[in-house]
Design goal:
This protein has 16 helices and no strands. The chain has 492 residues and is mainly α. Among the domains are: 121 residues; 204 residues, no CATH class. The longest helix has 75 residues. The radius of gyration is 34 Å and the shape is elongated. It is found in: Membrane. It comes from Aminipila butyrica.
Length: 492
């Protein structure tokens, strides 16, 4: 009996020890059996199912599983390329990113982008296979979750579910397209309108009742904004011409543009804060001619408007291009037009409300707004460089408390060291400069008050002297009249 049990038990132990390897081999074999398509266009050309968002995720899962197999085999570069193929070859080119951004939430786009970056960061940092698999599996589950939302389905990925997804997707496609187009226009346009509207209101406020001067100051801002719109279309055309759209190059261009905007916004914010004291602004206008005083500052403001519109405009144009090629063109234009109408109301609200705000709090609020936007653009710009593979992302576990939502996304706050550290440094610098400028403005105000008091005393003295002289003249006149009357009586 013992002679029989020993071989049997030994064989069972061998089989148990081989089970994980066999399971992995089965997974790898399954992944290898699936055709690998680096891009969505290649996938569609092969005749594979491509009617729902779950179909997109099915294709992406093959790419991601191939990446896991490559990483396990020691092919770090191959695994890295697989993640990039999943992002640039599928997630961006299919419109998945933009539809999810509009239909689910704007912050979902950021959350997904950071998860793609987290997968690539593991390959760059030489992480373990388990760590890489964990990040990729999380990415795949997030993609599947979004696909179910966009297709209007829930549950596992099977044939019947995909059939239902196609029907549900067809019925809700128009709504999803409209929501995406409307939200992208409102979201991206809001930042540009906020900056341009604040600058225009600032210049209108500074010009006072001088309509001619107001027109001369505001016109360059409108010109800069229009040039920004034109440049957005030109950039989108060039990216498509050079086949750089939906690539790392596009992310780098957007990142560099955002960082350039940070420099200009920060300069403009401090310039505005330095003029937030009414006496400072009055002195600024009085001590210089109009041409020399506002030449440099108007150029800076115009360039700021250009960058704000250009940065947001290019992304909007690139978003709308693939949307116009689907079957819901009417929903695309409806979202665009209604989004534009809403932005017009936002601009008018900024313009007319600013007229009723006193000059000092308005100038201060505008300067603070520009500072906040510079910090926001700094985070967004660095995030774009992370996506463009210029910077490697680090997101330690102790940053997990930072949520991903639309408010923080607009503020450019993300749970990464590469974005948070520069933002904190810029925030500290902004606070220090604000305190210094506030003290300077207070000193200017005290000096102006002192000067006004001296002028008031001098004016009162002059008025008193003038009254005294007038009284003397009046008395002298009365005496002269009395003397003249006396002489007239004596002669008669």
């Amino acid at each position: 009996m013992r002679k029989i049990l020993v071989p049997v038990l030994s064989m069972m132990m061998i089989l148990i020890s081989m089970f994980p390897t066999m399971a992995f081999a089965e997974t790898a074999e399954k992944s290898a059996a699936e055709p690998y398509y680096a891009t969505w266009d290649e996938y569609k050309e092969s005749g594979q199912p491509a009617s729902t968002w779950n179909d997109v995720v099915d294709a992406m899962e093959v790419v991601l599983e191939t990446g896991k197999a490559r990483y396990a085999a020691g092919d770090t570069r191959g695994a890295y390329d697989s993640i990039n193929n999943g992002y640039y070859g599928y997630y961006e080119t299919t419109g998945f990113e933009r539809i999810a951004m509009g239909y689910i939430s704007g912050s979902r786009k950021t959350e997904m982008e950071l998860q793609f970056s987290a997968c690539k960061a593991v390959t760059k940092n030489g992480g373990s296979t388990d760590e890489f698999n964990k990040e990729v599996d999380l990415l795949a589950s997030m993609l599947r979750e979004d696909a179910h939302v966009l297709d209007g389905t829930t549950g596992s990925n099977n044939a019947s579910n995909n059939s239902g997804a196609s029907a549900a997707g067809g019925s809700s496609a128009a709504v999803a397209t409209f929501a995406a187009c409307f939200s992208i226009m409102l979201r991206e346009g809001f930042e540009a309108i906020l900056i341009v509207g604040a600058i225009v209101a600032y210049l209108v406020k500074s010009a006072g009742d001088d309509i001619g001067r107001r027109k001369r100051l505001v016109t360059p801002i409108y010109v800069g904004s229009i040039v920004g719109i034109v440049a957005s279309f030109v950039l989108a055309w060039l990216l498509n011409l050079l086949k750089l759209a939906n690539s790392a190059s596009q992310e780098v261009i957007e990142g560099v543009t955002a960082l350039l905007a940070v420099c200009v916004l920060f300069y403009v914010s401090n310039w505005m804060l330095s003029k937030s004291e009414t006496d400072s602004w009055t002195s600024y206008i009085k001590t210089k001619t109009e041409k020399s005083s506002l030449l440099g500052s108007t150029f800076a403001l115009t360039f700021t408007a250009f960058l704000a519109v250009f940065r947001e405009g290019a992304e909007v144009v690139l978003f709308y291009q693939p949307m116009l090629s689907n079957n819901n063109v009417g929903s695309v234009w409806a979202g665009f037009i209604i989004g534009c109408i809403c932005l017009v109301f936002v601009y008018l609200a900024i313009h007319f409300l600013s007229i009723k705000i006193p000059i000092k709090p308005f100038f201060t609020a505008t300067g603070v707004l520009m500072s906040l936007m510079s910090i926001s653009f700094l985070g967004a710009g660095i995030k774009e460089l992370i996506e463009g593979d210029i910077i490697t992302m680090s997101s330690p576990d102790w940053l997990a408390w930072i949520p991903t939502n639309d408010i923080l996304d607009v503020l450019g706050i993300y749970p990464t060291l590469q974005t948070l550290i520069p933002q904190l440094i810029l925030l500290v610098i902004a606070i220090i400069l604000f305190v210094i400028q506030t003290k300077k403005n207070h000193a200017i105000h005290l000096e102006a008050e002192k000067k006004r008091a001296e002028e008031r005393i001098l004016r009162e003295a002059e008025e008193k002297k003038a009254k005294h002289e007038a009284l003397k003249a009046e008395v002298r006149g009365i005496l002269e009249e009395l003397l003249a009357e006396k002489d007239s009586t004596a002669h008669s």
